[in-house]
DNA sequence: GGGGTATGAAGAC
DNA sequence: TCTTCCTACCCCA
């Protein structure tokens, strides 16, 4: 489930398991053999997340940069690691724990300068204390691009993905097609604050829940929904089902080869 | 065993 | 806008 909240959890988990320890590194799949050889025996000194990018700092100033993409996953286990199952790009072991990385979009070692370049092309991350929503507003507020597209642009806001964008727009009652410049500073501030709250809850829970208690299916006399992504949401992947709030059929359209979901009743087009 | 799907993004046009 | 990369899982035959 790789949206920003997942990556922040991964950073914290790495620190908890391997922080300050010399780790054993290997690449059972072989595609990161050279990097794993360099990592092997080095001490994990810091673990950070910026948007969907995981940055693990090791002694000697190099940084392991992991981006999960759509498919990437980490699986952690306690005790001596068993023979790797499936295609494991990188395995780290230490302190009685191990972590297996499969299917990442990116798994590479960066020099300090390269880390700075990476960070410089990312927008503020709602989960980071140093995030400044005004920096994002500077882009959003002068753009003709639909807000739904801007929210997926990691150089505008780093961290939200397809679920958070759909859900935060629903919660704020904003038509996804509304151009950024027509949003207004006030609605941007409210949207940002909601993102911060939702994503922080996602970090704590390890899943994306966005439905307010009064709209939970149980409270409405319906059965809880079962969905593969694991959280309770208003519109994401609910196309054709009745909106939990107004009953209108949830709509969907493909935008930039991603599925966008919204409720035409709760998120009416601005006149 | 094949096809479709998925929470992402870069690079080629 | 299209293609490509990456892996696992689900559904269907």
TrEMBL record:
Domain of life (superkingdom): Bacteria
Gene Ontology biological process: base-excision repair; response to oxidative stress
Record key words, sorted: DNA damage, DNA repair, DNA-binding, Endonuclease, Glycosidase, Hydrolase, Lyase, Metal-binding, Multifunctional enzyme, Nuclease, Zinc, Zinc-finger
UniProt keyword annotation of Metal-binding present: yes
A GO molecular-function descriptor: oxidized purine nucleobase lesion DNA N-glycosylase activity
Occurrences of domain Formamidopyrimidine-DNA glycosylase catalytic (ranges): 1-94
EC number(s) stated in the UniProt entry for this protein: 4.2.99.18
Domain FPG-type as annotated: residue spans: 234-268
Cofactor(s) required for function per UniProt: Zn(2+)
Gene3D superfamilies in UniProt: 1.10.8.50, MutM-like, N-terminal (3.20.190.10)
Database matches in PROSITE patterns: FPG_CAT, ZF_FPG_1, ZF_FPG_2
One Pfam family named in its UniProt record: zf-FPG_IleRS
Reactions performed catalytically: 2'-deoxyribonucleotide-(2'-deoxyribose 5'-phosphate)-2'-deoxyribonucleotide-DNA = a 3'-end 2'-deoxyribonucleotide-(2,3-dehydro-2,3-deoxyribose 5'-phosphate)-DNA + a 5'-end 5'-phospho-2'-deoxyribonucleoside-DNA + H(+)
Family of the protein in this entry: Belongs to the FPG family.
UniProt protein name: DNA-(apurinic or apyrimidinic site) lyase
Species whose genome carries this gene: Actinomadura luteofluorescens
